[in-house]
Amino acid sequence: MVRIGLLGCGNVGKIIATHQEGFQVVGVFDQLHEHAASLSELTGAKPYSDFNEFITADFDICVEAASIVAVRAYALKIIEHGKDLVILSVGALADDAFREDLISVAKENRKRIHIPSGAIMGLDNLKIGQISHIESILLRTTKSPESLKMNVSTRTLAFKGKAKDCIKLFPKNINVSVAIALASTHEVQVELWADPDVDKNIHEIFVKGEFGELYSKITNLPSPDNPATSYLAALSVLSLLKNINSPLVIGA
Ligand SMILES: NC(=O)c1ccc[n+]([C@@H]2O[C@H](COP(=O)([O-])OP(=O)(O)OC[C@H]3O[C@@H](n4cnc5c(N)ncnc54)[C@H](O)[C@@H]3O)[C@@H](O)[C@H]2O)c1
């Protein structure tokens, strides 16, 4: 059984901790101790209020479901303490210097960093961009103004430009753009729309390349406890963990 340490005990953390299949959450850490304590009550995992104690606990994989700030603060230490790492707040890896550092420390320590497909489907296939020419990638994301912390009464373009600039302005809303850029090794253009007529998180992906053309659209139900986070993001972590040591590897 894979032993997990959970960094971040909010909406996704709770879904992960209450659907343990093929893994066991043994330790939980959050900057808000009451969040860690309440997940501990639900699951029996040990709650930690001190990161340095958490990181020396006996688990194999640390699952981050906290924030970009948490990834920046803790990811290197997690790897250096001999844990593999699942990063959901993948926007942290938009910073080239930080990402390269993290990857090089993972190589040195023979550890792996997993990026789940998060709020989209088909992330794995976009890795063809690493071996074949891609002409363009556009991500058009539409969310409710509430989840973008905006107050508009008509459909409004909140951002248009590069993924790495969008994630700086909307660190809780557009992680998928950075995941797509990392998978494809191609720049991603983003349109982020606030639409008062939608109550779901919609991601449309347009890709043109040597392979042909892709259009995909996913209409995600928001998570019960956080409208900015699609429920699918939590499910993607659960399926990653369930399959992490499977001899049958499906997908690119
Ligand atoms: N990759 C994707 O496609 C994708 C999709 C959805 C959400 N996300 C990201 O996943 C993360 C978790 O989402 P959520 O809905 O569970 O968020 P949430 O706000 O409900 O929960 C986050 C929890 O992490 C804790 N936390 C935040 N920063 C911390 C820090 N520096 N140190 C310790 N604890 C910290 C908070 O106190 C909170 O309990 C967010 O960063 C979100 O943007 C990624």
Query: What ligands can be seen in this structure?
Result: nicotinamide-adenine-dinucleotide
N-end to C-end Cα span: 25 Å
Order of helices and strands: EHEHEHEHEHEEEHHEEEEEH
Oligomeric state of the chains? single chain
- Per CATH, the superfamily of the largest domain is NAD(P)-binding Rossmann-like Domain
**Average pLDDT level:** 96
Number of domains: 2
Q: Could you tell me the radius of gyration in angstroms? A: 18 Å
CATH topology of the largest domain: Rossmann fold
| CATH top level class name of the largest domain | Alpha Beta
Would you tell me the structural class of the helices and strands? alpha/beta
Question: Any key phrases for this structure?
Answer:
252 residues; alpha/beta; Rossmann fold; six-stranded parallel β-sheet
Task: Kindly describe this structure.
By secondary structure, the protein is an alpha/beta fold. The protein folds into 2 domains: 2-114, Rossmann fold, CATH 3.40.50; 124-226, Dihydrodipicolinate Reductase, domain 2 (2-Layer Sandwich), CATH 3.30.360.10. 31% of the residues lie in helices and 29% in strands. Strand 5, helix 5 and strand 6 form a beta-alpha-beta unit. The longest helix has 13 residues, at 68-80. The mean pLDDT is 96. Bound molecules: nicotinamide-adenine-dinucleotide (NAD). Nicotinamide-adenine-dinucleotide binds next to helix 1, helix 4, helix 7 and strand 13.
